[in-house]
Design goal:
Layout (H helix, E strand, L loop, with lengths): L2 E8 L2 E12 L4 E8 L14 E5 L17 H10 L7 E6 L5 H5 L11 H4 L7 H19 L9 E6 L1 H12 L6 E5 L9 H7 L8 E9 L4 H21 L2 E11 L2 H16 L5
Parallel strand pairs: 4-5, 4-6, 6-7, 7-8, 8-9
Antiparallel strand pairs: 1-2, 2-3, 3-5
Helix pairs in contact: 1-8
Length: 279
Amino acid sequence: MNVTNCNRNEGFFVIEIIEKEYRIDGLNRTFTASILLPDDYDVLHTVRYPVLYVVGVNHLFDVHPTQLTHWNVKSSLDIMKKNKLIEPMIVVSIKGDNTFELEDYVHNLNQGIFTDPAHKNKPFISNAKEVANLLVHGIKPDIDKSFRTKPDLLTTGIIGAGYSSIFALYILSEYSHIFGKVGLFSMPLWLISNEIYLRAEQLILAEEATIYHYIAEKETSNWVKNQYAIYLAKKLNTILYKKCKQLKFVVGYGENANVIVYKERFPEAILTLFRKEKS
């Protein structure tokens, strides 16, 4: 495991990111965890913090000076913290090689969607189980050991977008005793076999578990596919509503699925998952 520190520019903020590398030897694959600590982490030496894991998301903490190219995470969290809506938290961005996104994050591909023989007749081999094992048994324990975290179920969340949102739901189905807060952005449900609905039916969640699920009206450039995507999302939520009392489902009418929209929706997701209880 390699550890490095680097400064990154997020809008008007210069933020310090701690980076750690983790390896799945059997796959010869490396994942990088980029860790954003709260501003007061080195001042309040006894305070422990909730942790949000964001998996497979590009431009979460970005080097570009414009705010249009990333999720604006730090400034959004700072505003919510200033308004006493959330506790300060640790954010861990986990990224692998984008070339393997489908294999890393999708556990059960519906190969019937492909018309070209190169995909349709080629066996799909998922790495999602191995990546989940790395997260749960490698990365999370190391983060909990290295930093002052609140490691419990209701102070640990995971967010995914696109392919990695499928992975986040997979994590919930396999490790609902570890992750109690899940954010799903733009799940491409048309890619997945019906097994995902069976997994949802079998979910056993803590009473206080929370789910945020967002889908844009314009997930693709195809109107028919967009309507189908919304239909599938509503179908999934019909099941999830039975399992989770604290579920927020949002259809972004008129919105495209892109980083600009995710940046605008990120505070809504955080407030759904981590809003402080009124004292």
